[in-house]
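A reminder from the course coordinator: this example appears on the midterm review sheet, so study it carefully.

Given structure:
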């Protein structure tokens, strides 16, 4: 139904422009949050190299609960403030961690993970979800990745 051309040799800014265009095309007109998260998790895994986990946690009754993702089975519930995801949800601020072993309270769902980028999705001033990307490479994520995923989080506000 949907097919997207992915060229890994493109500059990172172009990769994110393409990823966002694909996400916009997939979620426009669809109000089901689970469907939208599932498709965006698939896009993240397709477009971004060197990831071992890509997906969502949702804020439910004051804790994070696992949402749609691509990767190995993961921790189901994470307390706000706990680990990298919990820090992003509690503060409303992106967490870009070059070395997860150096992050206090990091939760090792997948022992392969070395670096992590977690971006909150904010609707009406409240964190409703976080986007979580894990990589087996140290310092996999740079400022361009952070900017790209923050744009994606804005697009998803109110739609997941
Ligand atoms: N490492 C995360 C937990 C989620 S998994 O990586 C999928 C954390 O510390 O919050």
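Designed residues:
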């Amino acid at each position: 139904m949907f097919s997207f051309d992915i060229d890994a040799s493109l500059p990172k800014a172009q990769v994110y422009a393409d990823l966002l265009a694909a996400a916009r095309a997939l979620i426009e007109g669809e109000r089901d949050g689970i469907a939208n998260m599932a498709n965006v998790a698939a896009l993240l895994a397709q477009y971004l190299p060197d990831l071992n986990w890509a997906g969502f946690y949702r804020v439910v009754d004051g804790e994070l609960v696992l949402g749609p993702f691509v990767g190995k089975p993961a921790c189901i519930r994470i307390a706000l403030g706990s680990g990298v995801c919990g820090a992003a949800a509690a503060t409303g601020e992106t967490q870009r961690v070059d070395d997860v072993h150096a992050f206090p309270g990091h939760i090792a769902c997948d022992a392969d993970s070395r670096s992590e980028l977690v971006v909150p999705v904010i609707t009406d001033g409240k964190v409703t979800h976080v986007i979580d990307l894990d990589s087996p490479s140290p310092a996999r994520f740079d400022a361009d990745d952070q900017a790209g995923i923050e744009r994606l989080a804005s697009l998803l506000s109110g739609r997941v």
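Residues 28 and 159 are 9 Å apart (CA to CA). The helical segments are 12-27, 33-47, 83-91, 143-156.
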